[in-house]
Amino acid sequence: MATKTSRASKAPAYKCAECGWTTVKWVGRCGECQAWGTVEETGTAVARTTAATTVVEPARRIAEVDATTAAFLPTGVAELDRVLGGGLVPGAVILLAGEPGVGKSTLLLDVAAKFARTAQDVLYVTGEESAAQVKLRAERIDAVAESLYLSAETDLGQALGQVEKIEPRLLIVDSVQTLSSADVDGSAGGVSQVREVAASIIAAAKRRNMTTLLVGHVTKDGSIAGPRLLEHLVDVVCQFEGERHSRLRLLRAVKNRYGPTDDVGCFDLNENGIEGLTDPSGLFVSRTKDPVSGTCITVTMEGRRPLLAEVQSLLAESPNSQPRRATSGLDSSRVSMLLAVLQQRAGTQLHKDDSYVATVGGVKLSEPATDLAVALAVASAKARKPLPVRLIAFGEVGLAGEVRPVPGINQRIQEAHRLGFTHAVVPASHTGPGPVPSGFSVREVEHLTEALSLLIG
């Protein structure tokens, strides 16, 4: 057994009542959580830990470490495995954060059931709902399994006791902000409580080689609630995103010690639960029989996944001296910039028209590669001339009207060809578009006026 000795200073200690940060002298503002007036004198000395006299587990050479114990375990949800890099790693702690109602609990309950059906014990600890409420949702989404255990607990000690008793292979905590420890001051969800809960669960996960999924709340600005230390302690941080009026949900890995962070998983949240979408491009493209002016289809990259999306534009003569500029799903300032480029560099007179630019399906397009599609959609609406059918366009447009290259040109072309498109307008690149599929026509342009004269005249 390791023994520890400590040496204490004679100076009084001061402690923050919010996060537990300590210091040897009083300050008006906490150095950790930046709260004012929360540092109080505790009357205890500040301890300093010295080296242990004996070591419980000696260090090993890296060549002697068995890496097979950290092999990926599939979850049964292909889109989640895609984001994680292959599946769950034994002993890994994963934090899943998202806004209320986005579908975090539904996704994890589905993962728990599918993992339990592989004869693995799974413990689902819920601090927000009762066990009966979770059972009702599980029956609705067909997530009932024999090896899935439910525990409605808000006390950290009781939850860890359930772990000791069941010894699960997978632990799910919903959520980390609802658990609290009786040994730490503060209410559940506070900085000190979240820190203690996360540290205790992570220690149990590493000691038992148990994969752990933690649900985290987010603040108004979208950041994870609690101390920033929480994101550093866990192995993987995932963000679950989605619009309230859309069924599409996107899962991104912000931090991943075991895989890439440039991939995205797509899910469809419906009344029957949550389902992975291997081909979500059809959600963002309208289905009209006849060509319509003011529409253009582009290919955007969500991580390493190309997705087709449609941009629509409508121009109407403005009765006001100040025309209206309305956008949906696009950055309003970038659309205003493109309108100015169209007027000054391409001669498209828009100063008397109200402009409405939106995306189909509620998708948000923030990539600069969608600039060319937005400009072509607006120009098509102005000329009242539809663009050719089965055409895609992508490229970044500069203030001088030049069309700049974007990454993944060949990957975007391959995705468009797979979905039945036959023509593409792309930025000119010194390396070219790469191998072009048979029967697919690619036209490279260097300036916005080239694309306009080619497609609209």
UniProtKB/TrEMBL annotation:
The keyword Nucleotide-binding applies. ATP binds at residues 98-105. A motif (RadA KNRFG motif) lies at residues 255-259. InterPro entries: AAA+_ATPase, DNA_repair_RadA, P-loop_NTPase, RecA_ATP-bd, Ribosomal_Su5_D2-typ_SF, Ribsml_uS5_D2-typ_fold_subgr, Rubredoxin_2. Residues 69-218 form the RecA family profile domain. CDD domains: RadA_SMS_N (cd01121). One of its GO terms (cellular component) is cytosol. GO terms for molecular function: ATP binding; ATP-dependent DNA damage sensor activity; damaged DNA binding; hydrolase activity; methyltransferase activity; zinc ion binding. GO terms for biological process: methylation; recombinational repair. Gene3D superfamilies: 3.30.230.10, P-loop containing nucleotide triphosphate hydrolases. Pfam families: AAA_25, ChlI, Zn_ribbon_LapB. Residues 354-457 are annotated as: Lon-protease-like. The keyword Transport does not apply. It comes from the Bacteria. Keywords: ATP-binding, DNA damage, DNA repair, DNA-binding, Hydrolase, Metal-binding, Methyltransferase, Nucleotide-binding, Stress response, Transferase, Zinc, Zinc-finger. DNA-dependent ATPase involved in processing of recombination intermediates, plays a role in repairing DNA breaks. Stimulates the branch migration of RecA-mediated strand transfer reactions, allowing the 3' invading strand to extend heteroduplex DNA faster. Binds ssDNA in the presence of ADP but not other nucleotides, has ATPase activity that is stimulated by ssDNA and various branched DNA structures, but inhibited by SSB. Does not have RecA's homology-searching function. Belongs to the RecA family. RadA subfamily. The middle region has homology to RecA with ATPase motifs including the RadA KNRFG motif, while the C-terminus is homologous to Lon protease. HAMAP family: RadA_bact. This is DNA repair protein RadA. It comes from Pseudarthrobacter chlorophenolicus (strain ATCC 700700 / DSM 12829 / CIP 107037 / JCM 12360 / KCTC 9906 / NCIMB 13794 / A6).
